[in-house]
Amino acid sequence: xxGYMKLKIIIxxxxxxxxxxxxxxxxxxxxxxxxxxxxxxxxxxxxxxxxDDKTIVAVYDAIDRSANEIDNITIKEITYFLSKDISNxxxxxxxxxxxxxxxxxLYSSLLDVKVRRLYFNKQTIVNIKEKVRPDKYLCEVTxxxxxxxxxxxxxxxxxxxxxxKFTTYIKLxxxxxxxxxxxNIIDNMIIYEKPTYLDPNKDPLVEVLKDIVNQLKGLDPxxxxxxxxxxxxxxxxNGLKRYFLFFLDSLIGNDETLTSFNVYDGxxxxxxxxxxxxxxxxIHILSEIYITGxxxxxxxxxxxxxxxxxxxxxxxxxxxxxxxxILYLMNIKNE
Length: 335
Known about the structure:
Layout: H1 2-13, H2 16-28, H3 40-49, H4 53-65, H5 72-85, H6 95-109, E1 118-120, E2 125-133, E3 136-142, E4 148-156, H7 161-176, E5 183-186, E6 189-193, H8 205-219, E7 223-225, E8 233-235, E9 243-245, E10 251-253, H9 275-290, H10 297-300, H11 306-314, H12 321-334
Antiparallel strand pairs: 1-2, 2-3, 3-4, 4-6, 5-6, 7-10, 8-9
Helix pairs in contact: 2-5, 2-6, 3-6, 8-9, 8-12, 9-11
């Protein structure tokens, strides 16, 4: 009953305009085939759910005052992403969560007109090309000679709880100066590199795995990747052009509650992610990339060298797991 009353209060605070938009979108969305993926649905609706009453009213007011900027294209985009994001095995549909998800997307859409075409600092020019998610843009990064460097994603910094947390993680990464793909904050925009996907015929497996384990080692005291898959792994086009996990959206603090389930983890259920879990998940993903055939990782990781990697990993203790695994890979490389 208490949850129902809270929902009723939230709906009453919304204007007729916002309620109408929510009703239109909820009448149009449809779930696609369910499968496990990163839980953007949780990230979006929680940014609104966690706001205090005064701030949520200010968000509603901002949307209401920008009614002329919300058109059929915006509604179509939000409906598309809601249909995609709610089609996740971990999600149970809930009226309040769907409403909050839509409000987040509406609020984010208002910032489109404020996003500049160009962002730049002393070394880099970032050209915003297109919107790829309600809160994310695809960008081209060039130098001041107008030479293309790499593609990146841009996310606007909003004064919302989980956006603030993500911004804190990005700032921490920059302070750590550990091996990472390009990441920067330019004005109110977070810029982070989009991967060039692996080519098994050109990218040496041992080098790829060593670089990623080294990246995880630098993050481990503070952060984990909650979710990763084959699109998360790639080669950087910046600096030394090393190999990394690029899906920074899924970074979480070591003590945070998990909201996404990753099938590549290999466990049927879990509520914590250890250092060993992170490395094992990477090995599973790489087995799917490097071994041809229609089987998934559960079969492919039983084939050498992936089976050897997993046996060695299983025998390691958590304490110095990254250094020991890197030494193991270095010995393989030098044999």
